């Protein structure tokens, strides 16, 4: 059986909500996704890569759109050497400074120290109003990651 995880990850890879904000966001998510099996703000010990699992299609330069899949693996290995504390990279295509967190992932992916996770939410999309409501509760802009395992 496969599972779908909706992960809402703060855009700042090192930011996490305080306990009150996390509790409020979980309460809102439970109301928005009544069919979910589980919802919680999950904290990692350090910066973690939240990917789209089987949904992952490709990785592109956020500047010129070039395909970066061949280069990306080595860039990830290098960043893993710092436990993802340093996500800075220079793109091989147009030689621009950026972050692994700012590349264009198809489907979206993100780096962070926490994520609001909704397991099998019972929906296939998140409306922009729903996202804004959760962002306001959490106190941060969020990246929406749909992970299929």
Descriptive notes:
With 149 residues, the chain is an alpha+beta fold. It has 2 domains: 1-56 and 107-149, Alpha-Beta Plaits (2-Layer Sandwich), CATH 3.30.70; 59-104, no CATH class. Helix content is 25%, strand content 33%. It has 3 helices and 8 strands, in the order βαββαββββαβ. It has helices at 19-32, 69-80, 128-138, and strands at 4-10, 38-50, 58-60, 88-90, 97-99, 104-106, 110-119, 142-148. The strands form 3 sheets. A 4-stranded antiparallel sheet has the order 2-7-1-8. A hairpin with a 6-residue loop joins β4 and β5. α1 (19-32) packs antiparallel against α3. The N and C termini lie close together (9 Å). The mean pLDDT is 96.
Corresponding CATH architecture of the largest domain = 2-Layer Sandwich
Low-confidence stretches are: none
Biggest sheet architecture: 4 strands, antiparallel
- How many structural domains in the coordinates? 2
> Which term fits the overall shape?
globular
Q: SSE order, as H and E?
A: EHEEHEEEEHE
Biggest β-sheet: strands ordered side by side in the sheet? 2-7-1-8
Q: What portion of residues is helical?
A: 10-25%
Fraction of residues in β-strands: 25-35%
Q: State the CATH class of the largest domain.
A: Alpha Beta
Helix/strand/pairing category: alpha+beta
CATH topology of the largest domain: Alpha-Beta Plaits
Number of strands: 8
Report the average pLDDT across residues: 96
Radius of gyration: 16 Å
The number of helices is 3
For this structure, the quaternary state is single chain
How far is the first residue's CA from the last residue's CA?
9 Å
